Amino acid sequence: MAESPAKVQKAGGGRSCCVCNERRAALKRPKTLEQICRECFFAVFEEEIHQVIMQNQLFKPGERIAIGASGGKDSTVLACVLSELNRRHNYGLDLFLLSVDEGITGYRDDSLETVKRNEVQYGLPLKIVSYKDLYGWTMDEIVKIIGLKNNCTFCGVFRRQALDRGAALLKVDKLATGHNADDIAETVLLNILRGDIARLSRCTAITTGEDGPIPRCKPFKYTYEKEIVIYPDNFAELVC
């Protein structure tokens, strides 16, 4: 019996893509272990996120959605994918980038520049809220008072509230964050170790805060971090 096209060795070495059976496979998907070409990975990655959005009814036409933009890989890819899917599938969403400047010298400067580039690249309005404007203190000034111990706890609480306040200023209906499957798995393990049963029961929800003024959703709930890292590399090569 002849081998299936997906297993046929291409001239010059390497297997053919298991999706299109035409191009040479360029990578193995961390999520499924499939041998796949760059073009098909790009398409499959976006389609899976589209299906998550549709199956979980994350958005409704006409909604204003803020994307929590830190300038890191997760939020940058989220901005790119949501912008593309909104255009391709006509979600009818008004998308905004929302970033927080904690006032930590040498920490947030570069990432804020990345967010500003995203604003231009994806054509999404950007709102930056700062600890200084919201609380009258930068994080550097807070650390001078409280010291280095437990400063991350303070910053985490302030950052969450800053995102809520920024979302309120933008008058959005939801806040989308770049939390991925790895983040959620880590949170589950931490809550198990802490014995925090109440938080354990809600930490895997794809949408939280529905009883509050601005719900938060995680379009990347089922997306592996390794694939989020691979995606922008493929994007750069495909558009060149």
Automatic annotation (TrEMBL):
One of its GO terms (molecular function) is transferase activity. InterPro entries: CTU1-like_ATP-bd, Rossmann-like_a/b/a_fold, TilS/TtcA_N, tRNA_thiolation_TtcA_Ctu1. The keyword ATP-binding applies. ATP binds at residues 68-70, 74, 100, 178, 183. Keywords: ATP-binding, Nucleotide-binding, Transferase. Residues 65-228 form the tRNA(Ile)-lysidine/2-thiocytidine synthase N-terminal domain. The keyword Signal does not apply. This is tRNA(Ile)-lysidine/2-thiocytidine synthase N-terminal domain-containing protein. It comes from Eucalyptus globulus (Tasmanian blue gum).
